[in-house]
Amino acid sequence: MPRLAPSAAALGCAILAACSFPADYSDTRYQCDLATECPPGYACVSGFCERPASGATGDGGGGGRDAGGRDAGGDGDGGADPDAPPGVCPSGSRHTDDFDTGLGWELTLDAGCDLGFAGGEVRMAASVGRCTARTEDLYDLDGRIWIQAVEPEDGELSPAFGVFLGDSSLVSMRTVAGLELVELAATGTDQQQLESIPFDAAEHLFWGFRPDGNDDTIFWETSPDGKTWTVQGEYRPAVYPEGGCMNLEIDVLGIGELGAGAVFDNLNLVP
To answer: Which span out of 39-53, 114-128, 159-173 was modeled with the highest average pLDDT?
Structure first.
């Protein structure tokens, strides 16, 4: 299709702001600039009056969303998209943390407990009470999440890792009895044991959780190397969080004298 230069009448209207364009542009393209007014339904794009494509902006910008519901241009900082539809949250399985800092974690510390981030590790100790670190953001349990239990202690101190479902926490917890799948109350130390296995420090170096893909079951898993996983139990929440969005959580419960403490490292990272 040839590109037509504006006619003398069109040029005259470009100079006289009172002029309008009754013409049909469907079979021609007319040049324009910032001083040229295009008719209703058209925009000046790259020097020509064009009918904008559906969803396009008046300046020829892209706009639109990708298949995941996020702005096609991204949010620039890798965080949650404020324009994402309800129920959509960042991937939990792709969220990593080597614990160089405690950024992104909210701490709740009872008297008699301690939990902090130092030297690229999560270090914790408690005599009584409960220490909890929860991610400030919600994450989609879209695949396996795990942590490395570097020093899980001997069970007198009960370190735990898991997810916060909104009214309770599902955690893998080291206890005197071994390694347990435990449901913790939202606050306090009330708990319900769901599964228990003898603890093996070498075989259970990594603790993980994985969804079944149908948003009704969460598998509890362990691994010696962060690569080969064994299912140790499963949990079916009474109400699965909308969109699979959950906080990640680290806990320690003290049940006796303050001991040497426990250490976690490598959230979703293989050392």
So the answer is: 159-173
